UniProtKB/TrEMBL annotation:
This is Uncharacterized protein. One of its GO terms (cellular component) is extracellular space. Keywords: Signal. Residues 1-22 form the signal peptide.
Length: 235
């Protein structure tokens, strides 16, 4: 009898051990599936590899873009044009209306010019609409040759390109003041640059932000007294 009781206790303990051991094994399996350091390490390694690959591709594209911009720039320095009004008589509003981009390495003639027929003046931003503290800053310029496009187009009144066109830059439409000499419309970059040490108010060839005026211009789609965006696109 005692022998039978001991045998039953032994089997009960053995079964209990196996049952608990079985739960332990299942729990360990779950932990292996969800928290296995080897699995996590492998995933992190794969992610690091992918990030490194993407960073390398991004660096390559930035390098290509920088190289392209360096090779297509032909002139880079001073925006210039006629004075915003005649220095002798303010009732005279003649002279050229276009804006030129002068290089920083001019070849100067040895002939003295003493007339007052036509002069080139440096350009200035008027007011701070173009950028922070842009008022009276001297305006630089750049002339580029596109290697990857056959056509460039400045679209006034928009800050994005139409489908099929590539964005070069966007900004604000600018021109001379309507009460001064004739001028041209330009698209000034939304992140304007300034010529160093050129913040003095010396006037010359001036640029103001252009706005809309309703009347002959339909409103809507345009809006009275709003600054005009512009965008330069290529294709």
């Amino acid at each position: 009898m005692i022998k039978d009781v001991l045998l039953m206790c032994f089997w009960a303990l053995n079964l209990s051990f196996i049952f608990v051991g079985g739960n332990d094994t299942v729990e360990q399996t779950k932990r292996l599936l969800l928290n296995d350091p080897d699995v996590i390490g492998a995933r992190l390694t794969a992610m690091d590899k992918k990030i490194s690959q993407l960073q390398a591709e991004l660096f390559e594209e930035k390098t290509k873009n920088a190289n392209m911009r360096q090779t297509v720039t032909t002139i880079d320095r001073y925006a210039a044009g006629s004075n915003y009004y005649h220095t002798v008589s303010k009732s005279n509003f003649g002279g050229p209306s276009n804006t030129l981009c002068l290089p920083d390495d001019p070849e100067i003639s040895n002939v003295t010019y003493s007339g007052t027929d036509s002069y080139l003046y440096g350009s200035e931003y008027e007011h701070n609409y173009f950028g922070a503290n842009s008022d009276d800053e001297d305006m630089p310029c750049v002339v580029c040759r596109m290697r990857t496009a056959a056509t460039t187009l400045m679209i006034p009144g928009r800050k994005s390109c139409y489908s099929g066109w590539n964005l070069e830059y966007t900004g604000l439409l600018a021109s001379g003041y309507q009460g001064y000499s004739p001028s041209t419309y330009l698209c000034v970059d939304g992140q304007p640059e300034y010529i160093p040490s050129g913040q003095d108010d010396k006037n010359g060839h001036l640029f103001y932000v252009v706005g809309y005026k309703c009347g002959s211009l339909p409103c809507p789609p345009y809006h009275d007294n709003r600054m005009a965006y512009c965008v330069v696109c290529s294709k």
